[in-house]
Amino acid sequence: MALSTPETPTTGTPPDRPGSTLRPLIVRLHFYAAVLVAPFILVAAITGGLYAVATPLERVVHAEELSAPASGPALPLDEQVAAARAVVGDLPLVSVRPAADDEGGVGGTTRVMFDDGRTDASRTLAVFVDPASGEVRGELTSYGGSGSLPVRTWIDEMHRNLHLGEPGRLYSELAASWLGVVALAGLVLWWTGPRRSSRLRPLRKKETRSARRRTQSWHGSLGTWALLGMLMLSVTGLTWSTYAGANVTDLRLALGWGTPAVTSDLAADGGAGTGDHSGHGGHSETAEPEAVPDAPGIGFDGAVAAAADEGLSGPLEISQPVGATGTYVVSEIDSTWPTRADVAAVDPADGEVTDVVRFADWPLMARLASWGIDLHMGVLFGLVSQLALLLLAAAIVVMTVTGYRMWWQRRPTRGDGVRMGRAPRRGAWRAASPAALAGVGVVALAAGWFVPLLGVSLLGFLVLDVVLGLRSRRRATVVPQMELETDAVPEESR
User: Fold this and answer.
1) Which CATH number fits domain 63-148: 3.10.450, 3.30.160, 3.30.70, 1.10.10?
2) Full-model pTM
């Protein structure tokens, strides 16, 4: 499948346009990125749309474990933990998520998490306990800080790595790397192109006879409306990626934008950490922590009461003390707006709160990163976020399809065989001024270093463009030579 056709020459210098010396270069970049990277973006959009509905789907699929049929006051948390312990044996206890209060009563089940040997993969064994009766409703694998259950985890991994493990994450990083670039380039081309009746709505059939112009108007106007959403998905998606994500983390730490963490070890020298509080940093790593019994000292109820005195309220997660000098870590886990993510460390011996980290005291960039991730996951505004992400995913799918349709509509219709659409005219580099090219080079090098897959794929596009250019020149010289040889043959010998 060729990107250009011999019937439509792509050589030559495009005409100069005052004030638009970079436009031919943007056209060619948008073309190659859209044609070659769009399949990855399409898959990411479809799987992301599925993830947008994963949370309500999870409530339906795992309703038996998440629902609590018994009524009445809740048992003490320590008794609920004991009920969960009875079914798992001697697995180490990790944390407890009490059933959420619902207008004075108790709704849902208490989730008690145990270490079954998969914590390195961010997985724990969750036991669901009816808070009123102490009945164990079931056991499921819980994944990550969001506590996603198997159905949501399956969809999440499909979106993140296509169930191919770590190598599969390259697909989603490539899609996130280029989504914002393609969106911005398309916006520039749409709003600097020839004047149309409206750039914010698609043309109707009665307004133009050209099917390609109608397709283009759908593509451009929809892209304008969806631009901010696509940029959000691109930026926040990169924070989870393998290579660009590591650079984002290093930059945040270097600028002091890390997520603060409570000091959860009484033997530590003091001072809040700078790691992610979801991992409850601050534990000593010099020796294997000493095993402690479930709910030592004041117990989980005492830890919740002490944290409540500091203003923390449900939904909560309470981590089991780690080692003889470890504290309870009580964390607010409400990711809906307004975010409640305060964290307190509580001494198990006497219930004293030894450290508190308030979400309001996080660095601004740390809070923005948290909100961006919650928005990407569809939890920041609850159902509104989920519906918006579903519509955004549908918009990206439509734009991908209409983009390929425009390419198909540019194809030559004469001659035999299946031919693909024309590529933009060559000579984009010659159309740009030296100053503009220097600026583009600096931006490309910086972006390629910070977002490695973007840089590698961009280099691949340049190589492909050079190869196609050499091929086009070869055809342009071979065909005239054949015509000269034919003209040199005497007419009587033809």
Assistant:
1) 3.10.450
2) 0.84
